[in-house]
Automatic annotation (TrEMBL):
Gene3D superfamilies: Class II aldolase/adducin N-terminal domain. SMART domains: Aldolase_II (SM01007). This is Ribulose-5-phosphate 4-epimerase. Residues 11-193 form the Class II aldolase/adducin N-terminal domain. InterPro entries: Aldolase-II_Adducin_sf, Aldolase_II/adducin_N, Aldolase_II/adducin_N_sf.
Length: 244
């Protein structure tokens, strides 16, 4: 990850929160997007508990430690229990500078299915064999240290997780990469549900074809950067206050 200043990371993460709201990826004030801050120790930016994602600005984001405890003055509470999943991933994966979590209708519906993402469309093929699966263990709690270990194990070297009966998670070396992965993982879930809802017999290409498509995605040097820049321009036109 190219070193970003705290200010730059605040603006990038605030942009991601606004885009979550714009694309219908939110669950009211719940779920989190987090990014690691540069420097020594474990310090991260996360949303204040109680703000809608459409309200979040760069300055409203809160610096927390690896346990989700605020490391700055804030007039808004922070939910340490809600940071449990992020904390586990950040600490175990130094390359995971950004972690995003969602509770969307499509994501939760796929999380309720045993087979996960099916290679029904080329969007879905990008995630073939690249998304881990974490069995449901109840609501994440900050005192359940053993689940953190299992969550990290289930993530392995994948780019994201399906949290059984819960939702989706993606990681990235940048905010842009984590958002790109979350947006298209969500689209993969929507495609699958739409195809399943027809009741027609579903067609999956051969594994060789699926793996070829996945490799094409993996060797694309852009990895969502062009999309991210375009979305930032859109926000700058329509919601410039996210930078405040």
């Amino acid at each position: 990850m190219t070193t970003r200043t705290e200010r730059e990371l605040r603006e990038e993460l605030a942009a991601a929160y606004r885009l979550y709201a714009q694309f219908g990826l939110t669950d009211m004030v719940y779920t989190h997007l987090s990014v690691r801050l540069p420097g020594e120790g474990h310090r991260f930016l996360v949303n204040p508990y109680g703000l809608l994602f459409e309200e979040i600005t760069a300055s409203s984001l809160v610096v927390v430690d690896s346990e989700g405890h605020p490391q700055q003055e804030t007039s808004w509470p922070v939910n340490p229990a809600g940071f449990v999943i992020h904390s586990a991933v950040h600490r175990a994966h130094p390359e995971a500078d950004c972690v995003m979590h969602s509770h969307t209708l499509a994501g939760m519906a796929i999380a309720a299915q045993e087979d996960g993402i099916l290679p029904l469309n080329q969007i879905n093929m990008e995630f073939y064999g690249r998304i881990g699966f974490h069995p449901y263990e109840g609501i994440a709690a900050d005192d359940n240290l053993s689940e953190r270990e299992r969550l990290v194990r289930d993530l392995g070297d994948h780019m994201g997780l399906i949290l059984q009966n819960h939702g989706l998670l993606t990681i990235g070396s940048t905010v842009a990469q984590a958002f790109y992965r979350m947006y298209y993982l969500e689209q993969a879930c929507r495609v699958q549900l739409a195809a399943q809802s027809t009741g027609a017999k579903l067609h999956c290409p051969s594994e060789a074809e699926v793996l070829r498509a996945r490799q094409q995605f993996e060797t694309d040097p852009d990895q969502g950067q062009m999309i991210w820049k375009a979305l930032r321009r859109k926000l700058d036109r329509e919601q410039p206050d996210y930078r405040d």
